[in-house]
Design brief:
This protein is an alpha/beta fold. The protein has helices at 16-26, 38-47, 65-74, 92-101, 113-169, 174-191, 198-201, 204-213, 226-229, 237-243, 245-260, 262-269, 274-284, 305-320, 331-340, 348-356, 358-367; strands spanning 8-12, 31-35, 53-57, 83-87, 105-108. Strand 3, helix 3 (65-74) and strand 4 (83-87) form a beta-alpha-beta unit. One of its GO terms (biological process) is phosphorelay signal transduction system.
Length: 370
């Protein structure tokens, strides 16, 4: 036998005569099931197929229609079932009470065949249209999530590829990227409720953007000549002047991309762009708290928060890492140098947070060791 896919209507009434009349009107077009009480109706809904529509008498013993309707609307699985009250009560206040309970319509007894069929058909079609729209919205949400995820992955891959290029040219490793971005993350999380930082960091999305932006801090090194970038010994004063240009070069390159893609970034991201933080970090992570850094000689809170976090993370990791021009320092020695730079090189609050995070810092260094 072919499956009966007609809409299912549940009629709830304590009078068999009323049930019989409604069933006779609707059986030709719908699957119709009767329930003689509110408890019977709830049992049928809980244990059987979900009705597409409920015709509900108001005046019944034990549980009246208003009580049943409120209960149905309070449950997530039944809240979307349209309920039409069928009642001999035709006072306006009674109808108002029914609509407040969640009913979508009101049919007065004795029922009119034409009105009953028309209103049932209308609300069945409306309910099906709403379900179709919800399904479409769900599909759209999934599609948007998938597209957003694809864009995020593309962004992450591009960022890491660019950062790896810069690190490779500088004889550093990809683990330097991982260590520094994780130092930045734990610092941001530690300072998120601290005065002077909470306006930016009390936001999971921003902290995630900082984490993803950190690997681009030395992207400007791709613009430095090999004989300076890869020199095994100490740089001369003139060479150091050229080396310092990597901060400005990195900031300019990201700023150019940011301006060219401004409209696309706004439409996709709808808010903060990771390029903003990448630009700040690349350009300003060599600024110093006392104003003696480069490229602009910024000081104190004029240095972006992102760059202040990166400054501590980058210097610490450079200290504990072996370079062609120096051996790796111990963690203890590196921490001593960071502490000595408190209030001169580094924001004192960032250094204090770094000290408190010492166990996490050493764990990251050990996890991503070269």
């Amino acid at each position: 036998m072919a499956q009966d896919n007609r809409p299912l209507i549940l009629i709830v009434d304590d009078e068999p005569l009323n049930i019989g009349i409604l069933m006779e009107l609707l059986t030709a077009e719908y699957r119709v099931f009767p329930a003689k009480s509110g408890h019977d109706a709830l049992n049928m809904i809980n244990n059987g197929p979900k009705p597409d529509l409920i015709l509900l008498d108001v005046m019944m013993p034990d549980m009246d229609g208003i009580e049943i309707c409120k209960l149905l609307k309070s449950r997530p699985l039944t809240s979307d079932i349209p309920v039409i009250f069928v009642s001999a009560k035709d006072d306006e206040s009674d109808e108002s009470e029914g609509f407040k309970a969640g009913a979508v319509d009101y049919i007065n007894k004795p029922v009119s065949a034409v009105i009953t069929r028309a209103r049932v058909a209308t609300h069945i079609k409306l309910a099906h249209a709403q379900k179709a729209l919800q399904q479409q919205n769900n599909c759209l949400e999934v599609a948007v999530w998938q597209r957003t995820r694809e864009l995020q992955l593309t962004q992450d891959i591009t960022t890491l590829a660019m950062a790896s290029l810069a690190e490779t040219r500088d004889n550093e490793t990809g683990n330097h990227i991982r260590r520094t971005q994780n130092y930045v993350r734990i610092l941001a999380e530690k300072l998120r409720h601290t005065k002077g930082f909470s306006h930016l960091l009390d936001n999971d999305h921003v902290i995630d953007l900082l984490y993803k932006s950190a690997p681009l801090h030395d992207i400007g090194k791709v613009g430095i000549a090999d004989h300076i970038l890869l020199k095994p010994g100490k740089l001369s004063d003139d060479e150091f002047v050229i080396m310092k240009q990597h901060a400005e070069l990195g900031g300019q390159a990201i700023e150019k991309a940011e301006h060219e893609l401004e409209d696309e970034i706004q439409s996709i991201m709808g808010g903060e762009s990771f390029l903003r933080f990448a630009r700040e970090i690349a350009r300003y992570h060599h600024e110093k708290w006392d104003g003696s850094g480069y490229p602009e000689g910024l000081s104190g809170d004029d240095i972006p928060v992102s760059a202040r976090l990166m400054a501590v993370a980058d210097v610490y990791d450079a200290l504990i890492s072996k370079r062609v021009y120096k051996p790796a320092f111990s963690h203890t020695k590196a921490m001593q140098i960071i502490i000595e730079g408190r209030g001169s090189h580094f924001d004192p609050r960032v250094v204090d947070a770094f000290i408190e995070l010492e166990p996490e810092v050493t764990h990251i260094a050990e996890t991503y060791t070269d």
